[in-house]
Structures are given as C-alpha cells and as structure tokens.
Amino acid sequence: MRYPDGGGLTARERVQRELVRLEAAEMFQEGIAPPLVARRLRVSRKSAYAWHARWAAGGVEALASRGPSGRPSRMRPQWRAWLEGALEQGPAAHGWVEDQRWTLARVATVIACGFHVRFSIKQTARILHEMGFSVQVPQHRAVERDERAVATWVKETWPAVEKTVRDRGAWLCFEDEAGQGLRPPKARTWSRRGHTPVVNVTGSGSGRVSLASMVCARPGERTRLVFRMMVHHHRKGEKKGFTEPDLARLLDTAHRQLGDRDIVLVWDNATIHKDAMMRGLLATRPWLMAYRLPPYSPELNPDEGVWAHLKKSLGNLAACTTGQLAALVLTRLKKMQYRPDLLNGFIAETGLPCTPP
Predict the structure, then answer these.
(1) pLDDT score for 101
(2) CB pairs under 8 A, 24+ apart, for 41-48?
(3) pTM of the complete model
C-alpha cells in the first residue's frame, strides 16, 4: 500500500483500515476463504492471508488498530495553534521581506526559533499537511498597493459606478492593454531524463503584438469582448504601441457595436488614460463616463483575466514569426468572443459586489 507523503496513516485513515479488517474478520467467521475476501474488499491476497492468520491466532481483537507506529511526534498540539498564527502573519513579519514565500526551510526556522526544536524538511512538510496547508502558486501583489484605498474604492466608488450604469441603461466596460512577444513563456518542455533543457531566446527585439480590449457587460445582454491588435516588426518609423487616438477609436468602435448605448468605462491609472489629450478626447463623447481603478489593483479588472487566459493558451503553441503570433492571438481572442460564460467568469473573479451578469 502507498502511504501519504511523510509516511504513516492519519487517524481517519487508520479507522477506515480497521473497519475493513473487521469486515474481513466477519467473513472469516462465515467460512469465506481469503482469496474471496480479497476480491470482495478489493485488497491484495497477501493482506487477506495475513489478516486471516492474525484472526486465527488471536480472534477479532488481533485485527484492531494498534495506533500510530513509531515514536510520538515532538510537535505538541499547543504548538500547532501558535505556528498557524505565525504563518498567517506572513514571512515579512519574521524577517523575509524581499521574497515573501513560505518555504519548508523557513517554516522549520520559525519552529526552531519559537520552541528550540529543529525539524527536518520532511517532518516540516508532514506537520504542514496535518495542519491543512498545501503547496500553492501565490499571487503577486505590488508593495506600493494601498489596501485602504482599494477597500474605499470598492465601498464608495463601485456603488456609484453601478448606479450610473442603472440610471443611464449603459454598458459597463472594463478596458486594459497588454502585449505578447515571440519570447516563449515559462512552460514545460520535453527533454531526456537527467538533462535539464535549455531554451535559447533572443535578447534583442524580435517583434511584438500590442493588444487593447474591453469586457462589456449589461443586464439582460450577452457579455461582449471588443479588442484591437497592433503588430510591431521593429521597423523604422513604426508605432511602438497604442496612442490616445487609438484608444479613442476603440471606444468609438465599442459604442457602435453595443448599439450606440451609453458606456460606463472602468480602467486603470496608466498615463495614457489620464493625460490631457485623453481627457480632451473623453470630453467630446457625451455617451461616455470614465472611472479609474485604485492604483495597483489589477485583480479588480476582468480584462486581466482575458490576458491571463490568452497567454496561458499560447504557452504550448509554436509561433516562429511575428505574423504567426498575431494570427494565433487573433484566433484565441475571437474564440473568447463566442464564450460569454467565460467572460462572465472573468467578471465574477474580481469579487466586486453586485457585479452585473
């Protein structure tokens, strides 16, 4: 039998195994042979014969659980509550400011500092599993982020956004920009065992695709995705990215595609969104009202979900030229346009209260 990482069984698993053995004992008393017991209980014949021998020598009591094997853990129950609180404080509270990840070595150090007992890496992993912790991919969050400002925006500004959408019967649109180059993302690759693969990438510019999109939602309407793409070949005189007039044309296109209804726009604090030229362009569009997200809060913008989904789908694709990359990006974005449930998922993922369907 394969045991969990760290060895041994948990208390619940020991009880389950004991119930299986006791059921086998009842079958032995009825005269059922070990091979048939093994088949009915879905255990190995070796286990069934071993249980039968123990039952024949000592009866049902011989198949009762003997408790956990080995020496008792040095991790006392009252220490676990303290350790859980220490982990909830975060690594920064214990001196790891630059890289705020909980590793097994760091957890073992915290335990050693708190109780003067040093656990091995394997023992530390077992303790964390028993406490309900698991290894997960963390979300990165800017140090400059002001949590109070974000909470204030959600509490005060977001209700005003929703009220404007209701009063004007408008579309709620979230906008953002992104880019994708030929440099491959960090993804898995095939290689011979024991030989770490090396992926050569260019250090100079090799072409890029600039993207701008809007996730548009309105009660009773299908959620839409409106996007624009710009391909850069690093040629002389070529635009390096979207400009204020380009974004204004994207807004005009969305206005036409959404039935010429009013638009309530929510986007971040990028310079191109709030400079004098953009403010002038927005002022000439009476059907548009813009709100800005709090600084360093990309998780409130569902358009970030669009980019994450797009970049993940490009991880295993083989684009050799900028033109091929642009074609793949265009195909993926068009597929998302026909999946309103996926777009609704991006909106729900923001956690904004009373988010329109």
Answers:
(1) 86
(2) 48/24
(3) 0.67
